[in-house]
Amino acid sequence: MHRHILIPTDGSELSQNAIDYGMALAKSVNAKVTALTVSTPFPTFAVEPGMVIDTPEQYGKRMATLAAKYLKVAKEAAAAAGVSCETMHIEHDQPYLAIIETAARRSCDLIVMASHGRRGISAIVLGSETVKVLTHSTIPVLVFRAPHQGIFTALASLT
């Protein structure tokens, strides 16, 4: 069924869970995996000069270090699952487009990614790369969702 799965990661715990799920799926269908992380380019516009804390070189090094850390997790999960995995770090100002374009260029037939499952105003304000990928991708997308607390568990934590 699936021969090549793209798994984007942002380094979050939920993203790690999606990596583990995607690797298990890849193993079960004997598919190869491409793990991807996307960083945005150095911000060249700031409202106040004091907002810029990095030089472009410092920012590039910081993003490369983070990307290597995120992709190492994916490589280790692939090795543990016995799955062939390539890793990629791309710089793009719109991560969802980088994900879709990479999936198309690499002939991926499935994208497995995480969603925090935000709802209401937080979803509108924060946006969601996952929703954007779902909306614009012609390649199937499997969404690994965050487990939601039950209403009673959430209420109990408030007391």
UniProtKB/TrEMBL annotation:
Pfam families reported for this sequence: Usp
Gene3D superfamilies in the cross-refs: HUPs
- Where does the UspA domain start and stop, copy by copy? 1-145
What transmembrane ranges does the database entry give?
Answer: none
Signal peptide start-end: none
Spell out the PANTHER family in the cross-references: STRESS RESPONSE PROTEIN NHAX, UNIVERSAL STRESS PROTEIN HP_0031
Q: Which family would the database say this protein is a member of?
A: Belongs to the universal stress protein A family.
**Know the name of this protein?**
Universal stress protein
**Organism listed in the record:** Bradyrhizobium sediminis
